[in-house]
Structure formats: C-alpha cells, structure tokens
Amino acid sequence: MKRKEVIVDTNALLIPGEFGVDIFEELARLGYVHILVPGMVVTELDRLRRRPGLKGKEKIAANVGYSLIRKYTDTSEQERTPAGCTVSISIEEGAGEVEKEEGDTDAMIAALALKRRAAVLTNDEELRLKLSQAGIVTVYLRGKNRLEEGE
Fold first, then answer.
1. For the chain, what are the domain ranges?
2. How far apart are CA 138 and CA 127, in angstroms?
3. Which of 3.40.50.720, 3.40.50.960, 3.40.50.1010, 3.20.20.70 is the CATH number of 4-150?
4. Whole-number Å distance between alpha carbons of 94 and 109
C-alpha cells in the first residue's frame, strides 16, 4: 500500500486555532502518513501572524498554526505527530517553473501536488476547484469538526 502524502495550504494551518480540530489526527484518520508543508506556506503563515493589526482569533490561529509546524519540523530527527504522521517542510518549492512571487503559492501547491501525486489540504474554494479539475484529491474542513476528502 502506498504511503499517502498531503500538501498543506496556509489556510489549513489556521484550522487548529480557529476550530480546535487536530489536523494531524484527522489526516492520520484519513490514511495520510506524510504531511508536506511548502516553504512558501511557512513564509506566508509567518507573514500573516506578524501582520500589523491582526488581532483576536485570527492572530491566535496564525500563531497556533506556525507553532505546530515549527514543533514538528524544528528537530534534527523527523519527529512524528501524536497521530503518527511525519511533517516536513518542502525546500523544492514545486515543479521549478513556478516563479516565487507573492500570490504564487496556489500555483506552486498545484504543481507540487501533480509532481508528487499528493493530495492537498485546503479550505480555499477556488483552489479546491482548480485542483479537482486537475484530478488532484483535496482534503477540507467539513462541519467545523472534521476533515474530509473530495475531488
């Protein structure tokens, strides 16, 4: 059986802080064992959490998401989440043809998903539609309490 891999979008990392859903446990429940966080996503999340004027739940959610990623990727050994998934930050940044400018994160995620034949965890409806049209499986928040797969 192939080890299932999922690429995580920036807005998906806000789910634990906004809704209290353990995305790692939910991804493991769906059979995903490797979670890939593109470097551009980490940068975007860091920029979001440092944005002046960001307050309340949004600020907490951004800080929680950033802390979780750092917790599971800042070790010299690959640390597993409590649910048994491995988390890594991608340094390949997609398929190579995608320029690394702000706003290119979605294109980079799509290119990386196609290249690695991975699913994508996102709540971005527009991105989910594009990915679905390209035949890429998406994982999204359903009912504010669980993750679900769709295409």
1. 4-150
2. 9
3. 3.40.50.1010
4. 7
DSSP string, 11-66: GGGGHHHHH---HHHHHHHTTEEEEEEEHHHHHHHHHHHH-TT--HHHHHHHHHHH
Q: How many CB atoms lie within 10 A of CB 4?
A: 18
**Which two structure tokens, joined as six digits, stand for 104?**
């290119």
Can you give the C-alpha Rg of the chain in angstroms? 14
Single-letter code of the amino acid located at 149: E
Question: Which residues touch 97 (CB under 8 Å, ≥6 apart)?
Answer: 111
Show the tokens assigned to 80. 């597993």
Cα–chain-centroid distance for residue 138?
11
- Per residue of the chain (151 residues), what is the pLDDT tens digit? 456 899 999 999 999 999 999 998 899 899 998 888 888 888 889 999 998 888 888 889 999 999 888 877 755 445 566 666 677 766 544 433 333 444 588 899 999 999 999 999 999 999 999 999 999 999 999 998 999 998 6
Helix, strand, coil percent values for the chain (each to nearest 5): 45, 20, 35
